[in-house]
């Protein structure tokens, strides 16, 4: 008998059991085994003997099992003597986005953040941001954020850049965390690292600098001087990030400072250089330049030729260059610009030609000295008889008329010659506006407008509205010749149209012309305000925010990030610092202006006052306490002359006969439909009253054992009421009336009991009013106003 029995045992070791489970055919058993291995590894047990068995588990489709295997491998890779292997382990660590195993990543990550090799440290910095996205609380509890802040002082510039990138990303997702506590010492460290790190590291640091607000103009100038060399970088993203920082800090510099002028000159060449790149980069650069030019046009005022269009430019580049050309146009270069634009107007690309023609009009509006030359150029283009050129020219000439009234009206005859060729809504609307506005100078204005009226219902809403206004203008200027025409258009707008805008404008004009033609003349023929030079400038507050986002998608879309980033997370509204002039105090005018701007916005007048303000009429109710005068029968709209009675001052006598065509809806008293439509509280001598629809039969007697119910809904003194007429058509007396409301679209329910004076004798009718509220149960009906009455 040998002693071998002392060395054998029936009890198998833990490693042996884990090895058996790792080689099991069952996926769940394998997964549990790998979890046990990781748990043992976490508490310090040596499980390196299982390395080949764990690696074999990678041959699976189960994503969770694969990530667990990676976690096991990382633990050993993080101890590898090769820094590239350690960095790769950390990078893999950041890609395992499983919340349950994040706590196992903490210890290896902590070691890597303090690794002796900078390549490992910079990779670990990015891993912290990824881990924070999975489990923010864990990262904060483990002190990783403080470690990241310490890395900003690292001796290696790339570690600094990645630490800044990680902190910026975390700060964006948690705006109130105050992670990036920037101070002059930190800024100095970032500027030192800026010169030595890679191009993407420079972008991270520049973006961080853009979020800093300098204490004064001296610090602002110092930062600008150290950032300026980045303008000559080969990478366009670095250039744009540097431009963003300089544009922001320039706000702090006094304009009389010599360095301010020097900085303006230094900004132009790098922006021009960006335009020699491929078309896609050119477009991004142009979109950013468009913002810069709106904020500081002086930067590129001498670089007009750079924006001249090349024959092989893609259309999106051409259109953007054209827009910038107009923004830079001035009296000094307008001749050069106009010559280019006239050339562009003969191109083949229709969209580009349209934009070029519009650009000529914008030049006329922006540079007054060039207006005559622009109009002459537009007339030359109209003579080409190219349809879309003619139409665009007419649209912009309308704007020129608005900007320079009574100056270039001699061209109207030429415009009228091309009336038949207009088929686009905007061009037709512009031509109609011109005819209506200058009707007294056009002999056959009524015939021209009548030709548009023939297909009124086929026109777009824009044309219909313009046509309605133009004919009313014509009537007020030539009342004796155009009464029938104005009646026709008002009837078309109010009776035959489904468009609420058109119908409401028609009703307003109808009421004005019927009651106070003098006021109508003051309103419709009022002097128009001059249009502004730049109608398409971005609103100043938005422009400031977009300047702070130069080099990002926001500057390409010309929209704030909140407009296209889903949700509010990570979106912060940025503003430029206030511009200060050294040695100057705020003037009293400035102070008063600031006080005005801080005041609350003007309150929109109530509905009852709005129409009065709009028409400059006194439509408020009379303040006298006596009884209102009785309404004469002459106040019946159907019985009064539609456009005659009050127009003696315009057209003299002879308009006494009622018009031939009178809309049926105008046969109601004045206290009816139109008063309620505009919520008028009286005024212009009209009787007051609220409109309610006429009663209709809700329940015929045949379906309700002889009880007929007619009714309507009305609002009296702000209370919704159901007004009913109950008629007994049976042979017996009716008593004990009650009502029950089912669920409905508006939640209508009785506000009190139904009170009916009973008994209701045969052939007797009684009026009943039931107050309602809207606190009942709601259920959507089809249609919404579906009303069903059932008798018990």
From TrEMBL:
Chief location of this protein within or outside the cell: membrane
Keyword Membrane: yes
Domain called Clathrin adaptor alpha/beta/gamma-adaptin appendage Ig-like subdomain: residue spans: 691-792
Keywords: Acetylation, Membrane, Protein transport, Transport
Membrane-topology annotation of the record: Peripheral membrane protein
Organism: Haplochromis burtoni
Name of this chain's protein: AP complex subunit beta
Gene Ontology molecular function, alphabetical: clathrin binding
InterPro entries the record matches: AP_beta, AP_complex_bsu_1_2_4, ARM-like, ARM-type_fold, Armadillo, Clathrin/coatomer_adapt-like_N, Clathrin_a/b/g-adaptin_app_Ig, Clathrin_app_Ig-like_sf
